[in-house]
Design goal:
351 residues, alpha/beta, 7-stranded parallel sheet, 16 helices, 13 strands, globular, binds uridine-diphosphate-N-acetylglucosamine, isomerase
């Protein structure tokens, strides 16, 4: 079986790592195509290096652009690659423009598509990721769902027959990195923080960064926390803050460059809280049992909220109150699987 993975953005490199490792373990032929959606070394290369992912076989180098231009460039560039490699499966990950473009390019050439992280829904049609998910699921032949809730969504859309529950590959890589982490002193020193004395924040979603008033309210709240908050600033956040004339640093808030994955795991494991609009970080915080505050009106990862480890808030006083809430009740629940999802993925692909 020849599997061709299409990846392009930071969270996809994390999801790719356990799949690539399992392919190597089983001796399965695996072609990695990097679309080039994320090209900064800190958002791309360091993930390949730190997570032991083989270098991409093909680099499309599409770079930034509007949604249409970016998606279209990937589509155009994929045709010759797929014609040349003729994989048994085109495997796409998550919900970015690279995901949708990879899936579309494959179905148009009648190549089977598998979607890893299928069935997630926010039901917020203003998110580009929601369209990417829905369209990719409906184009896909095999829908690899991380949770029961995701399988239910697929059933509700008439896609139940193509769905397989495999668990969440992000938990595979998180557990591996956590267990290999020698110590967290270096990252705490780099951040200038004490164990348990700080929160980690990330904000990058268009709906939070692009509206000056909304981003201003988020930043104001993060500057008034009663303990230090380290904001790991994504390029989109920095660019928009500059456009809005907004100073990120001030009060309790300090910005830093995005961290490599092992350092992020170390930082979150030692933090008293996480504040984010990322999908992956909500789960990573839960798996490391660090309380999470999510600056969004809905989440795809409803289990983290139901179990009491994540709250959804609007920017403003609600955000400040959420950060002061008491610690959640301990739980042994494992809604995202046991860290062996990549093996289930390859089983489902018949590899
Ligand atoms: C993308 C995904 C989002 C995912 C996120 C993870 C879509 C629609 N969105 O959002 O779902 O959560 O990745 O980070 O696919 N930029 C750089 N350097 C880079 C990459 C981007 O400076 O390496 C800049 C771009 O020029 C652009 C901005 O960051 O101004 C946004 O990049 P883009 O890839 O369009 O989307 P993300 O916001 O990263």
């Amino acid at each position: 079986v020849r599997i061709l993975s299409v990846v392009g953005a930071r969270p996809q490199f994390v999801k790719l790592a356990p799949v690539a490792a399992e392919c190597a373990r089983r001796g399965v032929e695996h072609v990695i195509v990097h679309t080039g959606q994320h090209y900064d070394p800190m958002l791309s290369d360091v993930f390949f290096r730190d997570l032991g992912i083989p270098d991409p076989d093909v680099h499309l180098g599409v770079g930034s652009g509007g949604h249409g231009a970016q998606t279209g460039s990937i589509l155009g560039a994929m045709d010759p690659v797929l014609e040349d490699r003729r994989p048994d499966w085109v495997l796409v990950y998550g919900d970015t423009n690279s995901t949708l473009a990879g899936a579309l390019s494959a179905v148009k050439l009648h190549l089977p598509v598998a979607h890893l992280e299928a069935g997630l829904r926010s039901f917020n049609r203003r998110m580009p990721e929601e369209h990417n998910r829905v369209l990719t699921d409906h184009a896909g032949d095999l829908l690899l769902a991380p949770t029961e809730v995701a399988v239910d969504h697929l059933r509700a859309e008439g896609l139940g027959e193509r769905a397989v529950l495999v668990g969440d590959v992000m938990i595979d890589v998180l557990y591996r990195v956590r267990d290999e982490l020698a110590d967290t002193d270096a990252v705490l020193e780099q951040l200038g923080m004490q164990p348990g004395g700080f929160s980690v924040a990330t904000i990058h979603r268009a709906e939070n960064t692009d509206d000056p008033a909304r981003l201003g309210a988020i930043v104001a709240a993060l500057q008034e926390v009663d303990h230090p908050v380290v904001l790991l600033a994504h390029p989109r956040l920095r660019a928009r803050a500059e456009e809005h004339g907004l100073d990120l640093d001030g009060g309790s808030l300090t910005t830093r460059a995005p961290l490599p994955y092992p350092a992020l795991v170390g930082a979150v494991s030692q933090a008293r809280g996480v504040i984010t609009d990322s999908g992956g970080l909500q789960k990573e915080a839960f798996a490391l049992r660090t309380p999470c505050t999510t600056v969004r009106t809905e989440t795809e990862w409803v289990e983290t909220v139901e179990l009491g480890w994540n709250v959804l808030v609007e920017p403003g006083p609600a955000l400040r109150d959420a950060l002061a809430r008491p610690a959640p009740a301990p739980t042994a629940a494992a809604p995202y699987g046991d860290g062996h999802a990549a093996a289930a993925v390859l089983d489902a692909l018949g590899a």
